[in-house]
Amino acid sequence: LLLDKLDSPLNSISKLKISNLIYGPKTFLIFSQMKLKTFKLERIFDAFNKPILSLPIEDFEMVFTKWKDLKSISLGNFCNDNIVYKIANLCKSLKKIILKSEMVSDFSISALFKSSIPIVKIDLHCCNLDGPCFEDIFESPQLSYLEVSFDEYKLKCLKRILENYQLNHIKVINWKYELK
Q1: CA-CA distances (angstroms) from residue 37 to 56, 102, 107, 154?
Q2: pLDDT tens figures, 100-143
Q3: What are the C-alpha distances in Å from 150 to residues 8, 32, 127, 159, 172?
Q4: Which site in 2, 31, 97, 118 is 20 to 30 Å from 174, CA atoms measured?
Q5: Which residues have CB under 8 Å from 105's CB, separation 6+?
């Protein structure tokens, strides 16, 4: 994708899905000129085609501050707790969140639940979660769909939490075991 070669103005772009991005110093500056409602970024590489697992948090802060109407975000293996904290603090219109990274922990997911984001769907099945974050799930009353990848014990704990908070309306998809 050559963003500087686009025929239409950048601020007319509302949906951007990128499987593989070669990161450059102006990449997120260009993204910040867009008025995105949907953003999907799977993998980031350097100029030598080596995966990048960490980017300056300021890049994400810049774009999240500009994308006031962002409704859906999907981030790949580079996503970490610092990025999720920025989402929790800056992306107040999100309804759908997909995080495909083992570098995301219970701490930042708890911050997402505690934020005022009207999350309807959250996919965490690739995240490295132990489960304590779900003690804060009641703080996201609009949540109706949750994807996780838990063993049987963690899944039973999640089910108990949902029952205790009377959140039986939340559909749980588990990539390891079925919720009974």
Answers
A1: 22, 25, 26, 33
A2: 999 999 999 999 999 999 999 999 999 989 999 999 999 999 99
A3: 44, 36, 10, 11, 11
A4: 118
A5: 81, 127, 128, 129
Q: How many degrees, rounded to 5, is the angle at CA 110 between CA 163 and CA 57?
A: 155
- Residue count (the chain): 180
- The distance from CA 7 to its chain's CA centroid, rounded to whole angstroms, is 29
**Could you write out the three-class secondary structure of the chain?**
CCHHHCCCCHHHCCEEEEEEEECCCCHHHHHHCCCCCEEEEEEEECCCCCECCCCCHHHHHHHHHHCCCCCEEEECCCCCHHHHHHHHHHCCCCCEEEECCCCCCHHHHHHHHHCCCCCCEEECCCCCCCCHHHHHHHHCCCCCEEEECCCHHHHHHHHHHHHHCCCCCCEEEECCCCCC
pTM assigned to the model: 0.91
CA distance 76 to 55: 13
Answer positive or negative: Cα dihedral of 118, 70, 110, 130. positive
